[in-house]
Amino acid sequence: MELGRPHLTSLLFLCSVVLFHNLAEANSDLPDDVQSSEDGDRYVTPTVDPARMYFAEHFDDLFDASDIGKRWIKSKATKDDAAEEVAKYDGEWLIELPKRPILANDYGLVLKSKAKHAAIASHLLLNRPFVFDNKPFIVQYEVNLQDGQECGGSYIKLLSAGDSMKNLKQFHDKTPYTIMFGPDKCGNDVKLHFIFRHVNPINKTITEKHCNKQKERLDEPFKDKRPHLYQLIIRPDNTYTIRVDHKTINEGSLLTNFTPPVNPPAEIDDPEDKKPDNWDDREKIADPEATKPDDWHEDEPAQIPDPKATKPSDWLDDVEEMVPDSTAVKPSDWDNDMDGEWEPPIVPNPMCEKAVGCGLWKAPMIANPNYKGKWRPPLIANVNYQGKWSPRKIPNPEFFEDLSPFRMTSIAAVGIEIWSMSSDILFDNIVICDDETVADDWAAQTFDLKIKILDRQAETLVSRFMKYCNSNPWMWAVLLVVVGLPIITVVYFMCFAKSDAKAAVGHSKKTDEFVPVDDERDAMGLDGARSDKTQLNANEVPSSLAGEAGQAENDEDEEEEEEDEDEGDGVEDVHVAQQTVDKEEEDEGESGATVDSRNAEPGEGLKKRKARKD
Fold first, then answer.
1. How many CB atoms lie within 10 A of CB 141?
2. pTM score, two decimals?
3. Alpha-carbon distance values, 78 to 112, 113, 115, 174 (Å)
4. For residue range 433-462, what is the model confidence (pLDDT) as tens digits?
5. pLDDT tens, 495-504?
6. Are 242 and 249 in contact (CB under 8 A)?
7. How far is CA 369 from CA 58, 91, 272, 365, 372, in A?
């Protein structure tokens, strides 16, 4: 059953009301900056639980200038390998809100200075170190490069337990650490450090092991000026996972994905083994039987003057290319005794600007066709080739096999020791624990809430509506009716209205009853009028022109008949053509001869035309 126009209009109106109502609802569900600010006001500082965490820092209760010293210790040390003016760790640390506040009363640790060494550290909760035993190790923290970053680091160091932890005021670049983790950039070199210090189980030496680079470049965190969450998970089975903003960007094994590898090779090259003097490791040698061809001239230059070149006729040979500047004036303070004799500066000769050239003309250089270069004999296979020499292998005296590199040195403190050309680097929400759920819950109360608000602020009305439709799939049906149905209706009438009209016209032509042309004209009384007009013309024109006038009139009649015949279909054309042939045969049979209209009497010409016409 087809819907009438009123019913269709009512349906579209109803769907439009539903669409715009839900669009307004979607806009209210996905708030703007003001509503996002209200969400930020509902931020609650997460609770620190020492029973589930080894370290947790939100900085929200350290906003007074003197409060930072309650849990954090600024370094007063100096670097050993730096100039005195830059060796001090005199970078400025403050607890303050971000430049672009997102959550109410959400403070962070901010490095305010740039181009200075800065170091600060804090002990783990209850001075309880993290021991790498049978539980995973998780560390995560936020960094917001509020001014971007061109050269500098924003990583943290997890300091090793030991005597150096007794005085964190002497924390510096040589202080022992177990893990260094975080972003670093200088120019186009972008890194996400994961370095752990491995202890040789035989001689107790310590070697830094650097994680292989991730495949994906991390450019956005250094320029978007938004907070980013960095998380490192190390498991007792020696696997690790690195995530940025909850996205895994690097993972692997401590045994296979680090340089240098944790375990040294079982065999090494024998340092005492030397290559024999008669060892021939030349794979190819010069052919000793080859001789230089007689036509090979090594002294031929690579380029020669073009012998076909000729000097232009307007070349100025006697004019110098560079001449003294005639407008130059000797400076008033010029002292010939001190400065020597003054000479004007040399400038291009203005006469050469309008000429093809001036000065000594030289033919241009071209490639020398006889040049072949230095001759060398061709190379052939060396029959005495013994292969590439390599020293023999011997057992590695320092070989060991550590199958549990996860058991690293215990961690006693968290430290930040960096140098940066950018200021206002904000650190926040540093967490160390052994349960991923604890770290995720902390991130949900802090970082995830910030990102949710920032994403809402960046959304447009269209993106909000699309998001609402995805969460309410039935809205797609309403959208299809309100938008799609009118478009389909318009396209239908535009495309099919004309074709329907043409079909109706064609149908009427094929079903109309055929009416002979002569009968139709007789019914309209046209024959009498045309006969009277022909008779009148015959009486008025001379006999010599009567035939021509009659022929012209006959041509007009035939054109009119052809136009009438074209309006019918093919059957009518055949019928009319057959009638015409029959008429002509009857006329020829009655006359018995061809009539010349120029010589015939006017009346006879008219009779012939009248008979042929009838």
1. 26
2. 0.61
3. 19, 17, 15, 10
4. 999 999 999 999 999 999 999 988 877 666
5. 766 665 555 5
6. yes
7. 79, 69, 55, 12, 8
